[in-house]
TrEMBL record:
Part of the ABC transporter complex HmuTUV involved in hemin import. Responsible for energy coupling to the transport system. Residues 4-239 form the ABC transporter domain. This is ABC transporter ATP-binding protein. It comes from Marinobacter adhaerens. Pfam families: ABC_tran. GO terms for molecular function: ATP binding; ATP hydrolysis activity. SMART domains: AAA (SM00382). The keyword Transmembrane helix does not apply. Keywords: ATP-binding, Nucleotide-binding, Translocase, Transport. It comes from the Bacteria. The keyword Membrane does not apply. SUPFAM superfamilies: P-loop containing nucleoside triphosphate hydrolases. Gene3D superfamilies: P-loop containing nucleotide triphosphate hydrolases.
C-alpha cells in the first residue's frame, strides 16, 4: 500500500497567483475525479503529484518521503501516470509498449521475463487490445492507443494511478469498461486520481472529487458533497440541469 500526500501544495501554473493550497492524501481504495475548466491546472497538478514538475510551494510526499528526494525508479514503483498527450518517438508494437510498464521493476540490463509478458498480456486483454499485440502503435486508432496507455499503466502495477482524461477518445462501451476497471483497481487497494471533463462519469464512478477553479481556488471531499449544482455552475461558468433517473443523478448543460 502507498499513500501520496499533497501538503500545503501550490502547483506552479505560470502567471497565476498562488491560490488555495492543497492538503489532501490519496488513500488506498479511493477513486478521485479532478474537475475544472480548461486551463485550471489539472494536468499541472497531475504532473506535480508524479514528481515531473516542481511545486511552487509546499510538498508532495510519498509514504512520508518528499518526492524530490526520491529516485525516479523508486517513485515509478509506486506511482504511474497516463498522459493526456503522447509522443511515441520510437516505432514500437503494442506488446513492446505495454512491457515498458515493467521497466521500473527490472535492473538496467535485465530483459522482461515470462511473468512480465504474462502481466502485459493480461492487461492488454483487460483493455480489449490483446488482438493488437503485434501491431505498431502508430497504426492504432485514438481509442485503441488510449487503451494501450492504460494497459501499460496496469502492467506497471503501481499503487497510485494518475490518469489525465482516461476516457479521451473512448467509445461509450469502453468508457464504462475503463471506469469499472479503475474502480475495481481501487477496490483491490490502489488509489486512483484522474482528471475528467465528464461530470457524469465522476458522479457515478468516483468516491472523491477535487474542484479546481481557474483562479487557483480549490475544494475537495466526498463525491456527494462536491457535486452540487451551485458549485459546478460556478466551476464551469455554465448553467446546468440536474435530472434523476433510475436512482442516478445526471448533469446536463442548459442551453
Ligand atoms: N510551459 C508553459 N508556459 C506557459 N503557460 C503554461 C505552460 N504550461 C501550462 N501553462 C498554462 O497553465 C495553465 C494550466 O494548464 P493545464 O494544462 O494544467 O490545464 P488543464 O486544467 O489540464 O486544462 P485542460 O482541461 O485544457 O486540459 C494553462 O493556462 C496553460 O496555458
Amino acid at each position: 500500500m502507498s499513500r501520496l500526500h499533497a501538503r500545503d501544495l501550490i502547483m506552479n501554473v505560470p502567471g497565476r497567483p498562488d491560490g488555495f493550497p492543497l492538503n489532501l492524501a490519496l488513500e488506498p481504495g479511493q477513486t478521485w475525479g479532478v474537475l475544472g475548466p480548461n486551463g485550471a491546472g489539472k494536468t499541472t497538478l497531475l504532473h506535480t503529484l508524479a514528481g515531473l514538475l516542481p511545486a511552487r510551494n509546499g510538498q508532495v510526499r510519498l509514504n512520508e518521503s518528499p518526492l524530490p528526494r526520491m529516485k525516479r525508479r523508486d517513485i515509478a514503483q509506486h506511482v504511474g501516470l497516463v498522459f493526456q498527450e503522447r509522443q511515441d518517438s520510437f516505432p514500437a508494437t503494442v506488446m513492446e509498449t505495454a512491457l515498458i510498464g515493467r521497466h521500473p521493476w527490472l535492473s538496467p540490463w535485465e530483459s522482461e521475463q515470462g511473468d512480465d509478458q504474462a502481466r502485459a498480456q493480461q492487461a492488454l486483454a483487460a483493455l480489449d487490445v490483446d488482438h493488437l499485440s503485434d501491431r505498431l502503435l502508430d497504426t492504432l486508432s485514438g481509442g485503441e492507443r488510449q487503451r494501450v496507455a492504460i494497459a501499460t499503466l496496469m502492467t506497471q502495477d503501481p499503487n497510485i494511478w494518475l490518469l489525465d482524461e482516461p476516457t479521451n477518445h473512448l467509445d461509450l462501451h469502453h468508457q464504462v469498461k475503463v471506469m469499472n476497471l479503475l474502480r475495481n483497481q481501487a477496490q483491490f487497494g490502489k488509489a486512483v486520481f484522474m482528471c475528467l471533463h465528464d461530470l457524469n462519469l465522476a458522479a457515478r464512478w468516483c468516491s472523491h472529487v477535487l474542484l479546481l477553479y481557474t483562479n487557483g481556488d480549490a475544494c475537495w471531499g466526498a463525491v456527494e458533497d462536491m457535486l452540487v449544482p451551485d458549485a459546478l455552475e460556478r466551476l464551469y461558468s455554465q448553467r446546468l440541469m440536474t435530472l434523476h433517473a433510475n436512482g442516478v443523478t445526471v448533469f446536463v448543460p442548459a442551453q
